[in-house]
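tokens incoming
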């Protein structure tokens, strides 16, 4: 048992420094609100979506956003976007920001140097070729490692996380529960993280439909309270 601890302890300490501590700092300790992006106005919110684009749910979401005249940031997976360039063209044409979520939906905690490079550098090349804009990146699950920070700097990307999550990917949550969480957790300067896809990245079947249903109530409510949905600097 002692020998196992001698072998395990250095590995645990290395992973702590490599992945866990950087994630804790960037995810929980630093300011992840709009103020960190240089937006200081009052009654401002940023709406964002991960894991897309999705041929079923992204068009439905775009129809709703157009009806409500709300712009959002879409953190796309580059490999999925390659299969749906028409959706990226629509995102850009309707004034939304197309940011990067990675080449694929890999947890950075489980990635070494080469995996991290592939997911960020190769993902950024695909994203740029497809017309990505805004120079922002959100890692899957919000998890990073030290190489994530290195390649973000190399690619000229800025890390953007969130301040509001409604667990909208879960199968045991209803559209009303998503709506309730959004109402309770959204404050001035919030960055809201939702999902327009996810069945192939860990989300429950049909989950984005419940998210869209919740937004049909949430978006008009926030606007009636005087909030504006904004985009970060290009």
């Amino acid at each position: 048992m002692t020998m196992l601890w001698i072998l395990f302890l250095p590995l645990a300490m290395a992973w702590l420094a490599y992945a866990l501590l950087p994630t804790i700092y960037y995810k929980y300790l630093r300011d992840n609100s709009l103020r960190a992006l240089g937006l200081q106005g009052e009654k401002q919110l940023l709406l964002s979506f991960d894991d897309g684009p999705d041929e079923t749910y992204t068009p439905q979401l775009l129809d709703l956003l157009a009806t409500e005249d709300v712009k959002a940031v879409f953190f796309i997976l580059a490999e999925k976007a390659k299969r749906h360039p028409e959706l990226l063209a629509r995102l850009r044409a309707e004034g939304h920001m197309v940011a990067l979520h990675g080449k694929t939906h890999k947890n950075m905690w489980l990635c070494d140097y080469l995996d991290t490079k592939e997911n960020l550098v190769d993902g950024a090349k695909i994203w740029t070729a497809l017309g990505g804009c805004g120079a922002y990146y959100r890692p899957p699950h919000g998890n990073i490692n030290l190489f994530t920070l290195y390649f973000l700097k190399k690619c000229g990307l800025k890390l953007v996380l969130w301040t509001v999550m409604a667990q909208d990917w879960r199968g045991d949550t209803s559209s009303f529960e998503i709506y309730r969480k959004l109402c309770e957790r959204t404050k001035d300067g919030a960055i809201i993280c939702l999902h327009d896809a996810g069945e192939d990245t860990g989300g429950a079947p049909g989950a984005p439909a419940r998210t869209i249903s919740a937004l049909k109530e949430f978006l008009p409510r926030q606007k009636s309270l005087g909030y504006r949905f904004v985009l970060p600097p290009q």
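note: Strands lie at 44-50, 73-77, 97-102, 136-137, 158-159, 164-165, 191-195, 228-229.
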